[in-house]
Design a protein that fits this description.
Blueprint (H helix, E strand, L loop, with lengths): L5 E4 L4 H12 L4 E5 L6 H11 L3 E5 L8 H6 L7 E4 L7 H6 L1 H29 L2 E6 L12 H21 L4 E8 L1 E2 L14 E2 L1 H14 L3 E4 L2 H11 L2 H4 L5
Length: 245
């Protein structure tokens, strides 16, 4: 993992910034890609000063599919590691009634992230090296009444990453799926979540850093979520549909 820059897509998110700082502490130059890069100027300056690395912000919108290739062409060099933290939760009751809002959530959590990582995969494959990390969610392990639009999009992203990992397994390009549960970020601000199941952004960042070192395939954060989701996935459908979880 030594050397090479790290590109963080969704770099203005709490998780994205925490991941950027974790890799910067290891000596990696950082590229933060976000829709409003000017807002990241202070973060880039702090990362550079604190860790003695180069850090800069780039404009990137995962929903602008037609601009993906030009965005990648505009990079000074192809990064060694890319972490995609793009995503939006949405409001499930609203999404049930507003198809356009639901489409936006699906695009932000699945279509955009999948297509940009697919484009990067082609370039990494041609180079013969690289690491792609997709931040998905435990919500994609089984559809649940409370967040099934978001969960369905994350399920699609998880499946995409799995297929990409299998395709590139013999090409020296590693693809990793990260599945956080609750994370104390702005995205879930105001929601009451169980402390034992709620990670901090820094926990996610360190889990990603360690998993990249070890070339892990799928990582749950916190690890207890692996067991929680195994239990949830094992409930027969005839009983599961009676639950409101």
């Amino acid at each position: 993992m030594s050397g090479g820059s790290v590109l963080v897509l969704g770099g203005s998110s709490d998780i994205g910034l925490a991941i950027a700082r974790a890799f910067a502490a290891e000596g990696h130059d950082i590229l933060l890609a976000a829709r409003r890069p000017a807002e990241l100027a202070a973060d880039c300056a702090d990362i550079g000063l604190r860790h003695g690395v180069k850090a800069r912000a780039l404009r990137f919108d995962a929903l602008e599919i037609e601009a993906v290739e030009s965005f990648l062409d505009g990079l000074e060099e192809l990064p060694a590691i890319v972490v995609c933290c793009v995503g939006v939760l949405g409001d499930q009751p609203l999404l049930e009634q507003d198809p356009l809002a639901a489409a936006g959530v699906i695009r932000a959590n699945f279509e955009g992230p999948a297509l940009v990582l697919g484009a990067l995969a082609n370039r990494f494959e041609a180079r013969g090296s690289g690491v792609l990390v997709g931040v998905s969610s435990v919500a994609g392990d089984r559809g649940r009444a409370r967040n099934y639009v978001y969960g369905a999009a994350k399920a699609g992203f998880t499946a995409f990453l799995s297929g990409l990992r299998n395709r590139l397994a013999s090409r020296n390009v590693h693809v990793m799926t990260v599945k956080p549960g609750f994370v104390a970020t702005r995205m879930i601000a105001g929601l009451k979540t169980p402390p034992a199941l709620t990670a901090l952004p820094q926990e996610v960042a360190m889990a990603v850093l360690k998993a990249v070192r070890r070339r892990r395939d799928v990582v749950y954060v916190r690890r207890v979520w692996w067991l929680v989701m195994r239990v949830i996935c094992a409930i027969p459908e005839r009983f599961f549909k009676r639950l409101n979880i």
